[in-house]
Amino acid sequence: MSNIQKTLSIIKPDAVERNLSEEIKNEFKINNFNILKEKKVKITKSEAEKFYQVHQTKPFYNDLCDYLSSGPIVVMILEKDDAVLENRKLMGATDPKKAEEGTLRKKFGISIDKNSVHGSDSIENAKQEIEFFFKD
Ligand code: UDP
Ligand code: MG
After folding, report:
1. What pLDDT digit, counting tens, does each position of 59-110 carry?
2. Is the CB of 93 under 6 A from ligand 1?
3. How far, in Å, CA of 58 to CA of 87, rounded?
């Protein structure tokens, strides 16, 4: 049975800065994700703080919010069967050093903080994150 879902993906500043956006978008396409919507934006620190609210007690929260607001990002709504889990699999582990061969973070990530991509971790968070970036 099909289980079509939407999830939010972000190409983070380190990857946009290295002109990897097209290559990463192509990875989604060849892995059968439909890119339903996409836009390049630069968010403010306070928007980043809102987006990463769940991490507000973590020691890396402030740096993470500085980082996500440090340069342009590409945000996308991806659609596929089991999109949330499938995107997490394609991204690989948070730390590129621990990410599996062939994953986006293994291929493109620089470090645990500059790990090139974000992906929603649950259907509920996917809905909230899509709403956050694509209200209109
Ligand atoms: N992060 C970090 N240091 C850490 C853990 C996470 O800088 O020790 C950053 C990293 O960029 C990660 C983001 O915070 O992508 C959100 O962390 P999470 O645990 O949700 O990882 P993800 O869901 O992105 O794999
Ligand atoms: Mg997460």
Report:
1. 999 999 999 999 999 999 999 999 999 999 999 999 999 999 999 999 999 9
2. no
3. 24
Residue type, 14: D
118 flagged as catalytic: yes
Q: Domain-by-domain residue ranges, the chain?
A: 4-133
Cβ-in-10-Å burial (0-12, 13-18, 19+) of 32 comes to exposed
Fold classification of 4-133 (topology level): Alpha-Beta Plaits (3.30.70)
Q: Which residues are found with C-beta within 5 Å of the ion, ligand 2?
A: 121
Q: Has this prediction a pTM greater than 0.90?
A: yes
Q: Of all protein residues, whose CA lies closest to atom 7 belonging to ligand 1? A: 113
The alpha carbon of 125 and the centre of ligand 2 are apart by a number of angstroms equal to 9
Q: What angle separates helix 123-133 from helix 83-91, to the nearest 10 degrees?
A: 80
Q: Which residues are paired to 119 by β-bridges? A: 9
- Half-sphere exposure at residue 84, Cβ-oriented, CA atoms within 13 angstroms: 13
Residues whose CB is less than 8 angstroms from the CB of residue 74 and which lie 6 or more positions away in sequence, other chains included? 10, 11, 16, 21, 25, 38, 39, 40
